[in-house]
Amino acid sequence: MLKKERHDSIMRQINLHNRVLTSDLVQLLSVSEDTIRRDLQELAERDQLYKVHGGALSKSYQSSFDDSTVYAKEAKIIIAKKAITLIKDGMVILTGGGTTIIEMVKQLPENLHATFFTISPFVAIELANYPRVEVILIGGLFSKNSQVTYGGHVINQLSEISPDLCLLGTSALHPNDGLTDTDWEINQLKKTMLNCSKKTAVLCISEKLNISLRLKVAPITNIQYLITELPTTDPQLDDYQIKSLQIL
Amino acid sequence: MLKKERHDSIMRQINLHNRVLTSDLVQLLSVSEDTIRRDLQELAERDQLYKVHGGALSKSYQSSFDDSTVYAKEAKIIIAKKAITLIKDGMVILTGGGTTIIEMVKQLPENLHATFFTISPFVAIELANYPRVEVILIGGLFSKNSQVTYGGHVINQLSEISPDLCLLGTSALHPNDGLTDTDWEINQLKKTMLNCSKKTAVLCISEKLNISLRLKVAPITNIQYLITELPTTDPQLDDYQIKSLQIL
DNA sequence: ATTAAACACGCAATTAAACGCAAAATAAGT
DNA sequence: ACTTATTTTGCGTTTAATTGCGTGTTTAAT
């Protein structure tokens, strides 16, 4: 088996399971441990995965779990400040969850007058500090992992609203594969959020760029704004310079 | 399981719960106590948590779940422990918001298997720690004062469910006037919650007894359980000794 | 003071990683 | 096609990391 095939296979396993054991890969690909180790090392050098003792982890896995030590907070504040330029008085806005969105909420102007729909209790609680903001928490099953509401009931309610702007945190963004995710239910949810909104902005710290996960949410052409902490001219963003997408 | 996964899992527990017991982690991650201790030590060295005898504490106490300032906490814990005796495996339960209810949630047995509907995001977040509990957050307008969802949408959804038990925190309870409140919308809400549930338990610290507010929610005969921090024989409860009301 | 739980320390067993080297495979040039 | 240069791989060995257990000590609660 060619090295490149092995690497692809390893990346597939990682995207599929968020983690992989060296020993499993040895069996799966029937090569020696040394080879796997060398492969993992190489992929780690290319920033495609996170190497740990005993195996490797998905790079995006990192932040899906640690949601407290607010990872890359500086970057998220920069993103937040860019994002609020999209928000005008009187708008109806739909948001997902995640630390990036919460950072954004904290940066909102004191006297903003707007209506927010959200699937995240944390976002709702944070928004409650703004006297002129109307907050509607969309109810449904509560996801223990993502800490947002999800499921059919949420989807139904989303189909009844038509916000001006949808603000979405991301697990992964890729120039070709667009927005992807790992969880089926959250995937459905994000799809619906995107579809019901007039415009969509994706908030994405740069390390989540060029990553592609198992489940496809939407092609990049369905997104109108991409917001990262990088300057708009940064070469990392070159692959995203397409006409339908405005980079902030 | 990889060490980093363990660490993330531990941090997640801490961020959600603000505290964690070594023994719980041993069970949760099925490794020896030594391993957990070494993990905690490592995380403590990295300033990610405070290590204490028996477990560890969150380093950042800033969360909205800071319960160190909860008023009359001791009393509320007593109430909580009484309340959970009403909860059996398999039940469908509806809860309101408030610190008393949150204290109760924190006291629930680790392996409770039940379905909870709630109008409080805080309660939902806290319930999310219980692996076998299904949490449904009832969505709607989010009240800045009471930090619960309210309004027509909530009322509608309540009318579609029929929980076995409704757990209600109280603003005021009076032998003649029953359950009363000050806010019109919250009042409507509590009425509906009471009506849709098969039985209702009122959680009430003793200092809120014998108080009557402007708006009537329900007569005392509509309530099945009264839970206070007092012993059931306390003279303060004499006025509430009626046949339809069980005092815990 | 007594007792049980929690802890720290060292040890040994297991497992993973790193290193050097030679065989095998691949690519390149004649 | 044949040889040479380069890369890749597997093996043996060494080194490091991780874990669980036994033992004795500390801590907290009664």
Set out the fold topology:
The structure is a homodimer of 248-residue chains.
Chain A: H1 3-17, E1 19-21, H2 22-29, H3 33-45, E2 50-52, E3 55-57, H4 61-65, H5 73-83, E4 92-95, H6 99-106, E5 114-118, H7 121-127, E6 133-137, E7 140-142, E8 149-150, H8 152-158, E9 165-169, E10 172-174, E11 178-181, H9 184-196, E12 199-203, E13 215-218, E14 225-227, E15 246-247
Parallel strand pairs in A: 4-5, 4-9, 5-6, 9-12, 12-14, 14-15
Antiparallel strand pairs in A: 1-3, 2-3, 7-8, 10-11, 11-13
Helix pairs in contact in A: 5-6, 6-7
The first copy, chain A, binds a DNA duplex (30 and 30 nucleotides) through residues 3, 22-23, 31-35, 37-38, 53-54.
Protein name (chains A, B): DNA-binding transcriptional regulator of sugar metabolism, DeoR/GlpR family
GO molecular function (chains A, B): DNA binding; DNA-binding transcription factor activity
Keywords (chains A, B): DNA-binding, Repressor, Transcription, Transcription regulation
